[in-house]
Amino acid sequence: MRFVAYAGGIVLCALMLVVLGTRNPTASGVLGGVIAGLAVPLLDESAKNARYATSLAYSLRFWGTKVRISASYLYRVKVGDKYLLVRGSRIPDQFQPVGGVWKVLPEGSVILSSLGAVDDSWIPVDPVSESDLRFRIDGRHLYQFIRWFESKKGRETDPWREFYEELVRTGIVPGTAFRWINYRHIRFYSDGIKYSAWVQGPEWLIADIYELVPTKDQESTLLALREAGQGDGLFIWAAEDQIRRLAMERAAPVKTKISPTATWTL
Q1: Which of 29, 74, 241, 242 is the most buried (most CB within 10 A)?
Q2: Which of 10-14, 39-43, 225-229, 242-246 has the lowest mean pLDDT?
């Protein structure tokens, strides 16, 4: 890894400077120049690898602790000032963004097994959840996991599956208009490792956030869907402030629940 090589070179040169002191001004000047020369690419590599710094810190902090990980992808589907949310399948009393957990491929399962990952015991394994990228792993392997996850090798990378299952197959949007979709990747979202009362231990929720880029026909279809309002309780259209409040209203009974993950897509 170039970052380690640059950092090691700077440390070595610094130690040599300490040893030489002022006894050899020429050598000290050369070493100082080498340090300056290595500092530039080191800073460049640091910027490139900044996203891994958090996982490295987590690896050290949770070294001997099992951490539950759930890696998913979520869609921002927006028409005007409203966002489309669908009723949850596992938590049916709340509405959430279109999306779900990434799937791991057989070769990816081999890699995760080599890192000591074990199946998640909190979600029953069934035909729907099988191969979900949801598991528990020793904290010391978190950095390696993130490096593998971002390599996209041995795992699902196309977010079409959940879009189809939650919107097309359910009939919320017509398959004739949504035979295919365009989307853009907005960001990688990390909720940070937090204690989960449900899991009774540390949990790390991460997600790729995508935005639907509809065609003119698809945009017209979504606009008509929005004007039609809620559809048999399968979906709702929510404004940003409603999502940020998770649909809670001051001094009013809760009529609609919105998942916290909906705020990730804003």
Answers
A1: 74
A2: 39-43
Counted domains in the chain:
2
Judge if 38 and 165 occupy the same domain.
Answer: no
Which residues fall within 8 angstroms of residue 247, CB to CB, at 6 or more apart? 95, 238, 254, 255, 256, 257, 258
Place of tokens 């916290």: 260
Backbone dihedral angles phi then psi of residue 225, each to the nearest 5 degrees: -65, -40
User: Domain check: are 144 and 249 in the same one?
Assistant: yes
Alpha carbon 8 to chain centroid distance? 31
pLDDT in tens, 181-196: 999 999 999 989 999 9
What are 98-129's pLDDT values in tens digits? 999 999 999 999 999 999 999 887 676 666 66
Q: For residues 252 and 240, what is the distance between their CA atoms, to the nearest angstrom?
A: 19
Which residue from 125, 134, 132, 85 is spatially nearest to 237, judged by alpha carbons? Answer: 85
Cβ count near 150 (within 10 Å): 12
| Per-residue CA distances from 262 to 15, 144, 243 (Å) | 51, 28, 7
Domain housing 19: 2-48
Whole-number Å distance between alpha carbons of 91 and 263? 17
Identity (one letter) of the amino acid at 107?
E
Distance between CA atoms of residues 6 and 174, nearest Å:
55
Q: Are residues 185 and 103 in the same domain?
A: yes
pLDDT at residue 49, rounded to an integer: 65
User: Phi and psi dihedrals of 92, rounded to 5?
Assistant: -70, -10
Tokens encoding 69 = 């990980």
| pLDDT score at 7 | 57
- For residues 205 and 257, the answer to whether their CB atoms sit within 8 Å is no
Q: How confident is the model at residue 5 (pLDDT cuts 50, 70, 90)?
A: low
Residue 143 has pLDDT above 80, yes or no: yes
